[in-house]
Design goal:
Order of helices and strands: HHHHEEHEEEEEHHHHHHH
Distance between the termini: 30 Å
Helix content: 40-55%
Strand order of the largest sheet: 3-4-5
Strand content: 15-25%
Length: 301
């Protein structure tokens, strides 16, 4: 508790301290003290939280928002799942604060945090957010105040997600993901054939053909499994939320990289003779291995 209060007291005071600001600072300190006292008097019940988590993750609405899939950032549990688990676990505070904004320099400083008031475990990240966004491979400067605010909040939400998962028990997060995956595979009790038909219809509505989907999954729609349809649902909701373009997840044509031979794979001896006395033998890569450096996160980021 003292750490949080010291942080507030030590914060730089504005050049002109108004009565409203002074009252707000005092209220914030008192609010932190009260939160700690209440957390100690009303500790969480892990067994009750576990039961509530399972009930919540079995609902289709949460399961559909529990994951995200974005090229170059990977896939994983979303901020929506993180917030729901923080609510269920109890005595957890989290948020995003814009510490400063430099319009001339085109940069904002943002703080994301998550704090377990009961155990006094806190995780926070302070980072700078450029007033820019990527449009294709180019950077686009932001000047509209609304666009800058949304950019700060979107980047902050991803940081809050990681902060929340840092203070939550790993077993709670892992089981929540397992239950959500099971809910997605179940598909609300619909037959698999019906879910495949619904998925193809949804993607057709956004201009993604069945050929592009089958190319990504690697097999025809008649052989899709529950897991394949569940992953398609995650992709569709990521597109629907505007986190990624359909062309990024489902390329319209096979790229040259797809046609190139795998790195390190040996050509037949009759095509490329190799002098074993002067050249090292290169082993074939295991199935599915590739040479890339992608960051490890249907969700938001």
């Amino acid at each position: 508790m003292s750490t949080e209060i010291d942080r507030m007291v030590a914060a730089p005071a504005p050049s002109r301290l108004t009565q409203t600001t002074a009252v707000e600072q005092s209220r914030a300190v008192a609010e932190v003290q009260a939160a700690v006292v209440v957390a100690q008097q009303c500790p969480r019940d892990p067994s009750k939280a576990l039961d509530e988590m399972r009930t919540s993750c079995r609902t289709k609405g949460l399961a559909e928002r529990a994951f995200y899939s974005v090229p170059n950032r990977g896939n994983g549990p979303s901020v929506h799942l993180a917030r729901e688990l923080a609510r269920i676990w109890g005595n957890v505070q989290y948020g995003v604060k814009e510490l400063s904004r430099d319009d001339a320099g085109g940069m904002s400083e943002v703080l994301a945090f998550a704090w377990d008031v009961q155990t006094n475990t806190r995780s926070e990240r302070t980072f700078q957010v450029p007033h820019e966004r990527m449009k294709g491979r180019d950077r686009q400067k932001l000047t509209d105040l609304g666009d800058i605010y949304l950019m700060n909040q979107n980047v902050g939400a991803r940081a809050v997600r990681e902060c929340i998962f840092t203070i939550l028990p790993p077993w709670l997060v892992e089981e929540a993901q397992d239950v959500c995956h099971a809910t997605l595979r179940d598909g609300g009790g619909k037959p698999l054939a019906q879910r495949i038909s619904d998925a193809l219809g949804a993607f057709d509505g956004i201009g993604v053909s069945v050929e592009r989907i089958e190319r990504k999954i690697g097999k025809p729609s008649a052989r899709w499994t529950d897991g394949d349809v569940a992953r398609l649902g995650i992709d569709f909701r990521s597109i629907d939320r505007g986190e990624v373009q359909a062309s990024e997840l489902f390329p319209d044509a096979v790229s040259a990289a797809d046609l190139a031979p795998a790195r390190g794979r040996r050509k037949p001896a009759e095509q490329q003779p190799v002098d074993l006395g002067s050249a090292p033998v290169v082993e074939d890569l295991p199935e599915g291995e590739f040479d890339a450096s992608l960051e490890p996160g249907f969700g938001q980021p």
